[in-house]
Amino acid sequence: MNYYKIILFVVITGLLFVGCSDDKKEDLSKQSAQPGMSSQTHKVVVKDILQANAYTYLLVDELGDDVWLAVTRRDNVEKGMTLYYDDAMEMTNFYSTDLDRTFESVLFVQTIGDQPLTVNPGMGGMMPHSNVKPEADANISVKPAEGGVTIAQLFENKKSYEGKSVKIRAKVVKVNLGIMGRNWIHIQDGTGDGSNYDLTVTSNDNARVGEVVVVEGFVTLDKDFGSGYKYDMILEDSKVIPETTL
Q1: b or e along 212-228 (b: 16 or more beta carbons within 10 Å of the residue's beta carbon)?
Q2: How far apart are CA 186 and CA 199, in angstroms?
Q3: Which residues are within 8 A (CB) of 27 and not within 5 positions of it... i.e. 6 or more apart?
Q4: Longest C-alpha distance within the chain, in Å?
Q5: What CA–CA distance (Å, rounded) separates 181 from 204?
Q6: Distance in angstroms (rounded) separating the CA atoms of residues 160 and 8
Q7: In whole angstroms, what is the distance from residue 147 CA to residue 213 CA?
Q8: What topology is assigned to 130-245 in CATH?
Q9: For the chain, is the Cβ count within 10 Å smaller at the N or the C terminus?
Q10: What is the pLDDT of residues 49-76, one digit of tens each?
Q11: What is the DSSP pairing of strand 125-127 with strand 118-120?
């Protein structure tokens, strides 16, 4: 009789496990239910942050599970922030010399940002929103930096600025973190016309939407990163200094 009870217990436990796995799969499918979102995108909420020299380690909540992520060091991630990632490589029993700590499991993430990674139908693959230009904000009017230029002046004379370092004071209107090893920042200063009102900046520095910043970087024309990242003009290797938050 005890033998049959054991068999029954094993069968019921197995069924419960399968049910839980199916529920987990259903939850995972809900993560990518947003229109255009890649099925490989993971949505997480930051619970804790550990800073090392080269990496930032993030304890995140993903579908109720605690997961450690390692990303290229960044200073503007906060607890409670929602992030999206893909392209992760798991390292087990990983020892961090900077932290003097061994992680039972940590995911080293290549692509992470504060907006979902989407499917580019033409490319058939994943592409973050960095290359989507924000709408012009008619309420923005930022005084130029001393010794700097406006976005309108830059577009009007872009050939003369090619390869040179310029300084621009503007408002941050969009940020994508850690895409292709850099942060992508869109700025506007209220100048420009037609489609030439928004400037894309790449930097290792961080910025927040709504901040007024002074950006200093090198003007590059006709830049093609591949995978749909093509720009008539972009500011690269930029320093981004926050000035104030509106």
Answers
A1: bbbbbbbbbeeeeeeee
A2: 6
A3: 63
A4: 90
A5: 8
A6: 80
A7: 15
A8: OB fold (Dihydrolipoamide Acetyltransferase, E2P) (2.40.50)
A9: N
A10: 999 887 899 999 999 999 999 987 887 7
A11: antiparallel
What is the Cα–Cα distance from 114 to 128, expressed in whole angstroms? 10
Q: Where are the alpha helices (DSSP H) in 162-219?
A: none
pLDDT of residue 110 exceeding 80, the answer is no
Distance between CA 154 and CA 196 in Å, rounded?
A: 9
For CATH 2.40.50.140, list the domain ranges present in the chain.
130-245
Please check whether the domain covering 42-127 is classified as CATH 2.40.50.
yes
Q: Which helix (H) or strand (E) holds 220?
A: strand 211-226
Q: pLDDT: is 189 or 38 the higher one?
A: 189
Lowest mean pLDDT among 7-16, 108-117, 127-136, 208-217: 7-16
Please check whether residue 99 is in contact with residue 70, taking contact to mean a CB–CB distance below 8 angstroms: no
CA distances from 2 to 9, 14, 205, 227 (A): 11, 19, 66, 63
SS3 of 37-92: the string is ECCCCEEEEEEEEEECCCEEEEEEEECCEEEEEEEECCCCCCCCCEEEEEEEEEEE
What the block records as the tokens of 114 is: 């504060």
pLDDT of residue 197: 94
